Amino acid sequence: MSNTYQIFLISDSTGETLDRIFLSLKAQFQNIEYKVNSYSFTRTENQILKILDLAKSQPNSIILYTIVDNNLAKFLANNCDEKKIPCFGVLGSLILSFSKLFNQEASHEPSGQYALNEEYYNRIEAIQFTMNHDDGNLLNDVEKSDIILLGVSRTSKTPTSIYLANKGYKTTNIPLVNHNSLPDNLKKNPEAFCVIGLTSEAERLADIRKNRINSLKETKSQDYTNLEIIRKEVDDAKATFKKYKWPTIDVTRKSVEETAASVIKIHEIYLSKKNG
To answer: Which residues of the chain are under the pLDDT cut of 50?
Structure first.
């Protein structure tokens, strides 16, 4: 029997929630091969039947779905049962349990999480702010930031900032070249802002920088990838963080999501102290 499984992800919305759930799920099982077939905005019985016909024709098919319309979800489950295709609803039991807990009927509206409410517009504003304040740009209004990330080149400042922006945090990231890289208001009032230093092992930074230069065919100074110079950059950055008592995160073995989670926790602590 083949160890390659055909995973059919069926969603009545964008499919983003289902994608993330499956990523977390498959990380728990090693040495299993998957081929993912994603179907978003699936909202009719005809769409479902076409997908199930394809799934039936493939070996080792498994279906995961997020469909909030009860009738359509039942139609999918019943047809999967008839065709003997393993089928798992991701949100159904949760919606039912919360409905009982809250003593309130669920709306069963697809894309409900994407309603154009205040939270949505705040998130869009945060994304726009963060993109405008990437890589040390527009430092004249840095005080409007929820979070300020500092670090030497290739310490995941930009991807972490973008991830945070999608969570609604206005984030400025500043490349730390030397002490003069810091805006004066940060140096004068280091505790007035939620500033977090990102650092990494020098060897890891050297590898990342070399790969970037090779992939983009850039012609940067050899100092950029010189291990001894990078070590000094990292040590100087750590000294700066220590001087101003800014918390630091070592991103060497962290994913962007893990780094962002640590940043958010530090931001929560910062707010509790500020408002306490």
So the answer is: 1, 116
